[in-house]
Design goal:
Blueprint lengths: L9 E7 L3 H12 L6 E8 L5 H11 L3 E6 L4 H11 L4 E4 L5 E2 L3 H12 L3 E10 L5 E5 L10 E2 L17 E4 H6 L13 H12 L3 E12 L15 H14 L2 H25 L2 H21 L12 H9 L1 H9 L6 H28 L1
Helix pairs in contact: 1-2, 6-7, 7-8, 8-9, 9-10, 9-11, 10-11, 11-12
């Protein structure tokens, strides 16, 4: 059959930008799959290294591999183009610095058919290749939710798991029917977050697997998770999640507070990875947005982990006070701590810190 008209069961999307060091291992892991009825769509986002040559070698050797060559426009635009050109019944996503175990596609496909699932989602391994290869298993949900059909809107644990769009199969018609696409912001920063949220808001027939086939590389220094430069990209993603939910009022009432809880955890993660100067700047935005949630009634502290509530209240009360508390080292003397508070926010901040301390003791 002509590969141009063939309809494979699975379309694997591989977004690629200057990843020559890892790309061959990634693509080879697909060529070695025990399941064979798939296409690989390599989306080359204007790579300037040898990535395009590596893609070509695989295309020359295996007609299941094809390429989309495009000018560099970022991860979201690349993935959306890949989704538009996918022909499979199911879609799988494999990042170009990760790799898949040989039976990964076969196992997920088997489960998808057995349960007529819209989504099959497996665990994964955190993977380090240096100084010696090392894998750490990551389960997404408790075992009690695995290996049978679940509705994410009923059992919501998946919303609080690490956002990940790989190690999964998605029915392509499910994605299309629910307008599940990527936010096309520049670069490659956190665009998986909103896509992931849209999936769990929309899916009602999901199977989680307490198995792992995907090796998620942690030692790629060029990875977006290692880049602190795009301070507010997470804010763009959460604005997109909020838009998607507001346009689905039948889901909003049940999931708005879930989204706000997710947002707190992500914003705190983002703050902790930034330099002190950028972190202090980001806290202002953090504070403003959560004060707005309070005013709008879109936050329920009852569903927060209890130890997070004091931090959130301090951020809303005074982001400068929270910053001072986080950066005031334990080994500081009392005089040094006073000076630290004065340097950050003056007498007013020092007075607020003292007032909060006294209130916590009463």
């Amino acid at each position: 059959m002509d590969t141009a008209t063939q309809t494979p069961e699975i379309s694997v999307l591989v977004p690629i930008y200057n990843v020559e060091r890892y790309l061959e291992e990634c693509l080879e892991s697909l060529r070695n799959q025990t399941f064979t009825d798939f296409e690989v769509i390599c989306i080359n986002d204007g790579s300037t290294d040898s990535s395009r040559d590596i893609i070509q070698r695989f295309m020359d050797a295996d007609k299941r591999f094809r390429v989309i060559d495009k000018p560099n426009s970022g991860y979201g635009a690349s993935m959306n183009q890949g989704l538009r050109e996918a022909r499979g019944t199911y879609v799988n996503i494999l990042e170009s610095d990760d790799y898949l175990e040989p039976d990964g596609l076969a196992r997920m496909y088997e489960v998808a058919h057995e349960f007529d699932a819209q989504v099959v989602k497996a665990g994964f391994y955190f993977y380090w290749s240096t100084p010696t290869p090392r894998n750490e298993y990551c389960a997404l949900v408790p075992e009690t939710l695995c290996n049978h059909l679940e509705n994410p809107q009923v059992n919501r644990e998946i919303f609080y798991s690490k956002p990940s769009i790989w190690s999964a199969l998605y029915r392509r018609d499910f994605l299309e029917d629910n307008d599940i696409v990527f936010l096309e912001t520049p670069g490659a920063s956190y665009q998986d977050a909103a896509f992931n949220f849209k999936v769990w808001v929309s899916a009602e027939r999901v199977v989680y697997l307490d198995e792992a086939y995907l090796h998620y590389r942690q030692d790629n220094e060029a990875s977006s998770v290692n880049s602190p430069g795009k301070v507010y990209c997470v804010c763009d993603e959460y604005a997109e999640m909020d838009r998607y939910l507001r346009e689905r009022p039948e889901k909003q009432a049940a999931l708005q507070n879930v989204l706000t809880k997710m947002k707190y955890d992500t914003y705190m993660w983002n703050f902790e990875r930034l330099s002190p100067e950028l972190g202090r700047e980001f806290l202002q935005r953090f504070s403003e947005e959560f004060r707005a949630h309070t005013d709008q009634g879109t936050i329920d502290l009852e569903i927060f982990d209890w130890w997070k509530v004091p931090d959130l209240k301090t951020i809303m009360l005074s982001p400068d006070l929270f910053f001072a508390q986080r950066t005031c080292k334990d080994e500081y003397s009392a005089v040094q701590k006073v000076k630290h508070y004065l340097d950050i926010g003056g007498v007013g901040l020092l007075a607020l810190a003292v007032k909060q301390k006294m209130a916590s003791r009463s």
